[in-house]
């Protein structure tokens, strides 16, 4: 058994020698750090018929991978149960963008993936997300998050309507707890 392990080490050692160094935090990672914490989430979901539904939930966001990523968990009452969601966001230096992943227990058809940019001047994150819609067909939507302060962020979700114009889907107001 030792000879097999030794042979594996000899064969694998050159590959480890060529491994790149871990990614160093970039200035964009400071944005992720500023989002870590526990947040109250006041949600308004807009229906096609013009009505809306409100809910208050909680999001807990924590840094991972030595500050290179932000993992977040969301919980809120929704309809007859509660929505549980999990997401992850990280800065991709080679793309010059943030990459986002989201999944929840209401989206029975898989996870959503997207890319986001940060405009420091307007303090706005703009994400384009693609994933399964309620009926399982792929849909694309935009999330525009205005960082109003360290304690308040407002996210507006829109998608293209049948007429090709942006229509509101949801608004989430994040207020830092504590």
Query: What does the overall shape look like?
Result: globular
Q: What is the β-strand count? A: 10
**Unreliable parts:** none
Residues in helices, as a percent range: 10-25%
Mean pLDDT: 88
- Taken in chain order, the helices and strands follow as HHEEEEEEEEEE
The CATH H-level superfamily is Calycin beta-barrel core domain
User: Treating each run of at least 4 consecutive H or I residues as one helix, how many helices?
Assistant: 2
Biggest sheet statistics: 10 strands, antiparallel, barrel
Return the CATH architecture. Answer: Beta Barrel
Through-space gap between termini:
55 Å
Strand content: over 45%
> What is Rg?
20 Å
List the domain count as a whole number. 1
CATH topology: Lipocalin
Concise summary:
The protein is mainly beta. The chain has helices at residues 2-17, 29-35, and strands at 37-46, 52-64, 69-78, 81-92, 97-104, 112-119, 124-132, 138-149, 152-160, 166-176. The chain has a 10-stranded antiparallel barrel with strand order 1-2-3-4-5-6-7-8-9-10.
Describe this structure in words.
It is a single chain. This protein starts with a helix and ends with a strand. A hairpin with a 5-residue loop joins strand 9 and strand 10. 14% of the residues are buried. The protein has helices at residues 2-17, 29-35; strands spanning 37-46, 52-64, 69-78, 81-92, 97-104, 112-119, 124-132, 138-149, 152-160, 166-176. It is mainly β. The radius of gyration is 20 Å and the shape is globular. It has one domain (28-176): Lipocalin (Beta Barrel). The chain is built from two helices and ten strands, in the order ααββββββββββ. The longest helix has 16 residues, at 2-17. A ten-stranded antiparallel β-barrel has the order 1-2-3-4-5-6-7-8-9-10.
């Amino acid at each position: 058994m030792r000879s097999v392990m030794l042979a594996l080490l000899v064969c694998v050692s050159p590959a480890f020698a060529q491994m790149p160094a871990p990614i160093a935090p970039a200035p964009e990672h400071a944005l992720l750090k500023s989002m870590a914490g526990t947040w109250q989430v006041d949600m308004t979901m807009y229906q096609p018929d013009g009505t809306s539904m409100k809910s208050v939930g909680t999001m807990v966001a924590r840094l991972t991978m030595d500050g290179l990523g932000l993992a977040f968990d969301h919980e809120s009452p929704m309809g007859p149960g509660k929505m549980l969601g999990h997401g992850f966001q990280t800065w991709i230096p080679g793309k010059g963008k943030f990459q986002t992943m989201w999944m929840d227990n209401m989206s029975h058809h898989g996870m959503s993936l997207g890319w986001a940019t940060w405009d420091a001047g307007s303090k706005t994150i703009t994400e384009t997300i693609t994933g399964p819609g309620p009926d399982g067909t792929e849909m694309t939507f935009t999330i525009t998050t205005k960082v109003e302060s360290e304690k308040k962020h407002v996210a507006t979700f829109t998608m293209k309507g049948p007429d090709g114009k942006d229509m509101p889907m949801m608004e989430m107001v994040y207020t830092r707890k504590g």
